[in-house]
Amino acid sequence: MNKQEVRRLIKERLDMMENRAEKERLIHEHVLLLPEWQQATCVAITLAFRNECDTRMLIEQAWQEGKTVLIPKVVGDEMIFYEHGPEDQLQANQMGIAEPIASARRASLDQAELCLVPGRAYRRDGYRLGWGGGYYDRALVTYTGCKVSIAFSEQLLSDFEVEAFDIPVDLIVTDLEVIRC
């Protein structure tokens, strides 16, 4: 399957998925039990897009635990991270993804010990297929913290094409398991 076919397959799987709320609860529970999450004082989290696993609960839990939360904003062909607190406003970009407003406090991804990396499909070796812009692959080139993806088990595939510039994640947390890649 080519990348577009993989994205279409995953969309169909997620649209047909049952027990979504319970699966999200299990994913969140697994993330909160990760030593990497518990030890982090700063986490980078993307707000969920379309039918991805919701991340708002993790953001709120991070605030309750006193963690600094960074969220990304696409600027040109680059992803810039900003501190995000409970009172900070967001606005939808041209794709409909919530991002920080212009007056937000800019931050460096390197501040975060853990970065939640979104995607559409995942291989057990940590490679992911995103939406096709390559923003995270470029942002993660020099990142040394823990790269974690959250996904429904329906998003795992045995194989798909990867490219030389693709950056794998360290962990994939699903409703069924935690995969250490």
Describe this protein's structure:
With 181 residues, this protein is α/β, with parallel strands linked by helices. Helices cover 26% and strands 24% of the residues. The strands form three sheets. An eight-stranded mixed β-sheet has the order 6-3-2-1-7-10-11-12. The chain has a two-stranded antiparallel sheet with strand order 4-5. It starts with a helix and ends with a strand.
Gyration radius, in Å: 15 Å
Give the termini distance in whole angstroms.
Answer: 23 Å
Strand order of the largest sheet: 6-3-2-1-7-10-11-12
As a percent range, the share of strand residues is 15-25%
Largest sheet: 8 strands, mixed
The average pLDDT value, as a whole number, equals 94
Number of helices: 5
Q: Which assembly state applies to the chains in this document?
A: single chain
How many E strands? 12
Order of helices and strands: HHHEHEEEEEEEEHEEE
Contiguous low-pLDDT stretches (5 residues minimum) are: none
Structural class, by secondary structure, is: alpha/beta
Helix content: 25-40%
Query: What global shape is seen?
Result: globular
Helix/strand layout:
Layout: H1 3-16, H2 20-33, H3 35-39, E1 42-45, H4 56-64, E2 68-75, E3 78-83, E4 90-92, E5 98-100, E6 106-107, E7 114-116, E8 121-122, E9 128-129, H5 135-139, E10 146-150, E11 171-173, E12 178-180
Parallel strand pairs: 1-2, 1-7, 7-10, 10-11
Antiparallel strand pairs: 2-3, 3-6, 4-5, 8-9, 11-12
